[in-house]
Amino acid sequence: MTKTIDTEIAPRIAAQDWPAVAAALDREGWAVLPRLLAANECDDTAALYAREGLFRSHVQMARHGFGRGEYRYFAYPLPSLVAGLRQGLYARLSPVANRWHERMGRDERYPADHADYLARCHAAGQAQPTPLLLQYGPGDYNCLHRDLYGSQVFPLQVAVLLSASGTDFTGGEFVLTEQRPRMQSRVAVVPLGKGDAVVFAVNERPVAGSSGDYRVAMRHGVSEVRSGQRHTLGIIFHDAA
Which of 21, 38, 65, 100 is the most exposed place for a label (fewest CB within 10 A)? Predict the structure, then answer.
């Protein structure tokens, strides 16, 4: 299903401050993983966008009312770096996902190994890979949305900025909204440098209240790119139908 896993990414994943990441996810619903990819890895990954044979699907956002810009879903086998990120990040995030589900009163729990979770997805009819590359130019943006592809949903996902803000592009901020019950929406603009990743809630997350935990809905998007070109690698852990 995947090419040989890129072993160089594993130490960088391990070197992240995972207790701080978990605390930020509980507090805000998102957390930054600084310098997850080196500049050359960002450039090499962004360059894959032109290699149509690596992808199973090409989406023009405007055609579907998703915004402006475009993205391509990778086909299996995934490039080794993408596969390594998906496998290694899942292993670190599955304990957070299980804790969130317990707090939200959900029965589903996630196995420690991503291959075991993919087997569950495929048994449910979700066998299409979901990691993707997104490309934005001037005037492009991504509407607020959630990446749900079937009954199997891993509650966290990751986006890696492959371009340098202020150099390769301007504008194009990563944006999250949070809707708490009986309250107005809260907006977060996540500061990212080239090679930084953001981990964030796919759909909903638990928040501690005076009477116990409750669920809040979250969506994500990208503001309008004012100039240049912006590339992003998206790592979604559940597959699609």
Answer: 65
